[in-house]
């Protein structure tokens, strides 16, 4: 079974630009969540999507947004990039929603550098 | 403020030594997971524990979930250089919303 796939793996953007990151979950997984990882803040939850609906949201500004498609693939977008947005963005998928004891599986991440 | 506190933050040991990493919280979790992450890569799931008091073993790694499901520990026996990495614990609090500890950076020297 293929794992979680994220694209692109590396990208460099300029302040003020916007960026879109893509995530394909493990086949059969319907829940996709996004995390930001930085050396100072660690892994922080951005948002989670299930059946094309955002169900959970972390404490990030509105510049961070996402969506999920009918095939469970997801994208996240960051607009008006700031230097502090430089981070590893991780996508994770899990098989179910609405039940406890889920397990999430991570992709390799997208490294974003804002200059 | 982190919902999950991990300790120690850094650990540098010699090959063959034993070590324990702790993950503590005042909150109750429905499940707790441990991951290992290598530089530039995503976290890789090691284990999920779901029952209070549960102990799981994965070769030289032993994971324990506290009786009250608020804390967990990871014990590595006879550490090897291949165990080097960032160890993360994550607790599921609400449905499919996970809180991560700040991580323990382990370096095992040959």
How would you explain this protein's 3D organization?
The complex is a heterodimer of chains A (115) and B (110). Chain A has 115 residues and is mainly beta. Chain A is built from no helices and 11 strands. In chain A, the strands form 2 sheets. In chain A, strands 2, 4, 5, 6, 9, 10 and 11 form a 7-stranded mixed sheet that branches. In chain A, strand 5 and strand 6 form a beta hairpin. Chain A starts with a strand and ends with a strand. In chain A, 38% of the residues are buried. With 110 residues, chain B is mostly beta strands. Chain B is built from no helices and 11 strands. In chain B, the strands form 2 sheets. In chain B, strands 2, 4, 5, 9, 10 and 11 form a 6-stranded mixed sheet that branches. In chain B, strands 1-3-8-7-6 form a 5-stranded antiparallel sheet, with no helix packed on it. The N and C termini of chain B lie far apart (36 Å). The model of chain B has no long low-confidence stretch (mean pLDDT 92). Chains A and B meet through strand 4, strand 5, strand 9 and strand 10 of A and strand 4, strand 5, strand 9 and strand 10 of B.
């Amino acid at each position: 079974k293929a794992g979680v796939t994220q694209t692109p793996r590396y990208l460099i953007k300029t302040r003020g630009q916007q960026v879109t990151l893509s995530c394909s979950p493990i086949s059969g997984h319907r829940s996709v969540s996004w995390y930001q990882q930085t050396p100072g803040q660690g892994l922080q939850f951005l948002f989670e999507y299930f059946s094309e609906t955002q169900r959970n949201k972390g404490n990030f500004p509105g510049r961070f947004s996402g969506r999920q498609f009918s095939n469970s693939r997801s994208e996240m977008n960051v607009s008006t990039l700031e230097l502090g947005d430089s981070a590893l963005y991780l996508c994770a998928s899990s098989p179910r929603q609405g039940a406890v004891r889920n397990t999430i599986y991570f992709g390799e991440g997208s490294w974003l550098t804002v200059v | 403020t982190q919902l999950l506190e991990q300790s120690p933050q850094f650990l540098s040991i010699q090959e063959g030594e034993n070590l324990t990493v702790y993950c503590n919280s005042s909150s109750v979790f429905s499940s707790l997971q441990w991951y290992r992450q290598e530089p530039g890569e995503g976290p890789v799931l090691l284990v999920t524990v779901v029952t209070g008091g549960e102990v799981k073993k994965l070769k030289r790694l032993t994971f324990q979930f506290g009786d009250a499901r608020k804390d967990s520990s990871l014990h590595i026996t006879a550490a090897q250089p291949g165990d080097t990495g960032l160890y993360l614990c994550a607790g599921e609090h609400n449905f499919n919303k996970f809180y991560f500890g700040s991580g323990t950076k382990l370096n095992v020297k040959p």
